[in-house]
C-alpha cells in the first residue's frame, strides 16, 4: 500500500512538473551596466565573509567578471591619500562607495523559480532575488522542467538574462512516465540526469535499495544531492542513513528527529492521520522534535558526530515554516502589499489542494507546539555550526506566505535567532553555500581571483539584518518622521552592476499591473 501511495505522489509531482514546464522564458537582459574591462569600487567597508571582521576603507578592482585587487587605502575618519589608491586609467569605470558596505552575493540554497501553478513569471522571481543581493540559486527540483532550467542556467551564465546564476538539481525520477522501481532503473536515470547537465538530484525519499543505488551512482559521477525526507519513506531512510549512503545535504528538518529517536522507531501518528491532509501532516510535524532524543543525550551526540564526520550540510530553511508558529505575522508581512502577485496570494490561501496552504483550523495550540519545535531544531543547528558543521541559508519561497528575496532575508534573521553571530549568518549565506555547491573556489567570498558577485548597501547589515529587506525597515529621521532605511543599493553579479532598487520597482509595477487586470 505504501509503495502504491509513493508511486501516486511521484506521478502527481511529475504532472505538476509538466504543467510548470510550460512557464515562459525570462526576457532578454535590458538591465545592468557592465561588465567593464576595469571597474574600481572606491572607499567601501568590506565584509568579506571569510570570518574576518569588517575593515575599510578599501578599494576593489574588478576586471571583467573577476576580482583583480583588494587594497586597504586608509583609516576611518581620515582623508584618503589618492596616491595610495589603485590608479584609474582612461576608460575605467569608477564608483564612489565611500558610504557603503560590501559583502559577497548571497547564495539561496533552496530557491524554486516558480511556475504556472503559482502564477509567478520567472522575471518576477529573478528580480526579487537580485533585488535582495541573491546572485546564486540552487533550484532543488527544477520544477519548470530540467530542459527549461538548464536553458536558463546557460542564459544566466552568459548574462543574456537578468537572473542569478543557477544550479539545477532534478527531482529523482523526473521525466519518466512511471516510478523507478529497481536499482538498475535508478542507476540508469542518474546517469542520464548527469548526461543532461544537471548539477545534482533532489530526493523526497525512496525504497532503501533504490535510494542507496542512486546516491552511490550520483556520488561516483561527482554530483551532489539534497533530500526532503518525506514521511512516506523516512522510517526506512532517515537523515543519518541517507547521509551514510552518500547524500550531501538535507533540506528543512525532516528525517533529523527520526534519526534521533531513542524510545520509538516511527513518529507518534494519531489513528486518523492522513499524509495527504496537510493540516494533519504539518500539525503533527510540530510535535516531532519532542519525540526525539534531547540536547546533550548520547543519541544527540552520536548523530551529530556522524554527520560531522561525513561533512554533511544542513540547509534548514527556518523561514518557510514560520507561519506555523505565527500565522498572523506571515500573512501580514510588510511586503505583501506591494510585492506579492494576486495569483501567488491566491495560492497561499487556505486550500486542500495547493501545497503549503493548509490553514483549515490553525490556532494557538498548533503555534505553541511549533515554537517549542523551533527551540530544539535551532539548538541542533547552532551546535552543529559551533562544532564545525556546514549550515547554509535557503528560502523555499513561493509557499506558505514566504516571498522570494524577502523570505531569504527572513532566513538570515532566523539564523541569528538560532544563535549565529551576524558574521556567521553572512558566512552561512555566502561561503558555506558556495562550499555546499562545490563552487567555493569561484564564489562565496570577496577575494582576489573570485567571481565579482558583490552586494553594495549603505546601511550596516551586521547592526540590523532588516536593512537587507527590499522594503527597508522603519526609523525616525531628524524631524521625528518615520522613514524606511536600508534596502540593497546595488547587486553586482559577474561584474555587472544592477540597481537593486530599480529591480524592485519593476516588480512593484508587475504587481500593480496584475491587480488592475
The percent of residues in helical segments reads 25-40%
Structural class: alpha/beta
- What portion of the residues fall into strands of 2 or more residues? 15-25%
> Total helix count?
19
Major β-sheet profile:
8 strands, mixed
Cα separation of the termini: 46 Å
Give the uncertain stretches in residue-range form: 1-21
Q: Give the beta-strand count.
A: 18
Question: How would you describe this structure to a colleague?
Answer:
With 517 residues, the protein is α/β, with parallel strands linked by helices. It has helices spanning 2-20, 122-131, 146-157, 183-196, 208-220, 231-234, 239-245, 256-259, 278-285, 298-309, 322-325, 327-331, 336-339, 342-348, 364-386, 406-418, 422-429, 431-436, 500-516; strands at residues 36-46, 55-64, 66-72, 93-96, 101-104, 106-108, 134-141, 165-171, 200-203, 224-227, 249-251, 313-315, 390-391, 454-457, 473-476, 482-485, 490-493, 496-499. The strands form 3 sheets. Strands 1, 2, 3, 4, 5, 14, 17 and 18 form an 8-stranded mixed sheet that branches. The longest helix has 23 residues, at 364-386.
